[in-house]
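User: quick one, sequence for these tokens?
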């Protein structure tokens, strides 16, 4: 029996008596065990981060760039190990796990580039007689200790979206990974130290929610960067005190296919955007609005492509859709579908569950108030609804408590700009699904979907504070 994996406290690997198991979501077979951090470990991590920040904040840009580039190189070198861990802990298909590691490497390289672009401004202050002879120098400085709390669905790249910018800015980091998927994050911690970042500034602490909340409340943490469910995220903001908070939360993303769209392309992207990673993507397509003139044709294409998907063991390269993270998550999605059917919805594809496997599901005849539309389903389930005018489609897409991203398919430039002006979301994808994300772009939501933006350049803004020096030329 191998020893449970230790956690990382300011560069020191430690074990505790509380051991948890990671199980493969497909068949529940044991993958590995790991130790949970205790309150004393958290306290030590915070103190160590404060000390470490004394070093990290003085690292020149060329050092931070060198460390990040080396970190990216180590990720590349360990790509197979990382991909295998992601498949085993999160149940991702091998193709998706490899893609996640590739993206993570890019996220770190983008962070390295941005580390060299943390500029300031020179402000002539002689706009009033009293400020004559004064010049302002405005610069961004690292903020302190960044607490990163991450979800299970992209356990590695989403951690890199927090750690990369934090290092680029020169902050200390404490990473609290999801306890279902801690293995890739523990490896991340060791690679970051191997890359040369001051070890006392690096902690990776799988722990219970109440201990995580203790960290969130701690006034010595300068910034909380949380990605996860809306319920947890908004609660953490309430208890976070005076620290800055960034929230990347969920949604019920909409895709609109207008009558002039390239239907085969739209259908293909919708099926991919709705069902990839078993729908466990914050910008997964959930609500599809099809113009009435093309409703039957486009729906037939969606159903044909859905029918061709293979669901099963994610280690098998012929499988497109792996398991959901847990039986409880799959059962909750099943319950929402069952409820919709009871209220009048029709199941056009899927609707079935076997353990953690949820088969790609297409529902018609739903109404906005059903939970399959009004809440985040976070499963391979899409609803399709016809519409008559583009304005009506936009109103339907906007009719949500969430606002992460919206996708429209149209050949009309005018419609694209109308949608840009009218859509209530963090981003609009034209001729693509809302599920599109390039790691460099500003990413984040409005309303219940969150606060602030990620993407290395934008995350660095959140993780740095402006400071002004005024020079008086006497
Ligand atoms: P979750 O909210 O259950 O967990 C997220 C993280 O918070 C985990 O590390 C978890 O251990 C921790 N946590 C849970 N309760 C806590 C508490 N009381 N105090 C402190 N930490 C706590 O989310 P999940 O199930 O892991 O992930 C799925 C959710 O994440 C979905 O809602 C999805 O939309 C969202 N998500 C959003 C984005 C985005 O960028 N907007 C990306 C991926 C996932």
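Assistant:
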């Amino acid at each position: 029996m191998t020893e449970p994996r230790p956690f990382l406290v300011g560069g020191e690997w430690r074990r505790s008596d509380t051991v948890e198991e990671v199980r493969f979501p497909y068949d529940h077979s044991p993958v590995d065990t790991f130790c949970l951090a205790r309150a004393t470990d958290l306290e030590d991590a915070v103190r160590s981060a404060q000390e470490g920040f004394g070093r990290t904040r003085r690292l020149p840009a060329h050092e931070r760039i060198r460390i990040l580039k080396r970190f990216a190189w180590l990720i590349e070198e360990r790509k197979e190990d990382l991909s295998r861990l992601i498949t085993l802990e999160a149940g991702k298909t091998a193709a998706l796990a490899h893609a996640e590691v590739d993206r993570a490497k890019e996220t770190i390289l983008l962070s390295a580039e941005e580390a060299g672009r943390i500029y300031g401004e020179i402000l002539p202050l002689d706009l009033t007689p009293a400020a004559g002879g004064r010049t302002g120098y405005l610069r961004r400085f690292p903020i302190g200790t960044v607490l990163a709390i991450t979800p299970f669905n992209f356990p590695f790249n989403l951690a890199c979206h927090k750690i990369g910018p934090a290092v680029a800015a020169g902050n200390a980091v404490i990473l609290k990974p999801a306890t279902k998927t801690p293995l890739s994050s523990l490896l991340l911690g060791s690679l970051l130290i191997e890359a040369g970042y001051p070890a006392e500034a690096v902690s990776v602490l799988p722990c219970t929610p109440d201990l995580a909340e203790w960290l969130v409340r701690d006034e010595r943490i300068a910034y909380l960067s949380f990605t996860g469910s809306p319920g947890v995220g908004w609660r953490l903001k309430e208890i976070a005190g005076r620290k800055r908070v960034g929230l990347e939360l969920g949604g019920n993303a909409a895709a609109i296919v207008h009558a002039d769209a390239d239907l085969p392309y739209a259908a293909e992207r919708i099926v991919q955007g709705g069902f990839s990673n078993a729908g466990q993507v914050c910008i997964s397509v959930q609500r599809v609005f099809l113009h009435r003139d093309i409703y039957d044709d486009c729906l037939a294409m969606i159903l044909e492509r859905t029918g061709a998907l293979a669901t099963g063991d994610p280690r098998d390269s012929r499988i497109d859709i792996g398991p959901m993270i847990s039986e409880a998550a799959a059962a909750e999605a099943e319950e929402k579908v069952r409820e919709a059917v009871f209220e009048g919805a029709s199941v056009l594809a899927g609707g079935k569950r076997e353990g953690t496997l949820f088969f790609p599901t297409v529902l018609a005849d739903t109404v906005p108030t059903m939970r399959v539309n009004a809440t985040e389903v976070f499963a391979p389930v899409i609803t399709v609804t016809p519409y008559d005018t583009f304005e009506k489609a936009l109103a339907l897409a906007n009719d949500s408590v969430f606002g992460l991203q919206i996708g429209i398919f149209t050949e009309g430039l005018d419609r694209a700009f109308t949608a840009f002006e009218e859509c209530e979301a963090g981003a609009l994808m034209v001729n693509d699904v809302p599920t599109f994300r390039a790691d460099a772009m500003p990413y984040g939501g409005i309303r219940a979907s969150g606060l602030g933006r990620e993407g290395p350049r934008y995350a660095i803004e959140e993780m740095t504070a402006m400071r002004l020096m005024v020079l008086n030329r006497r």
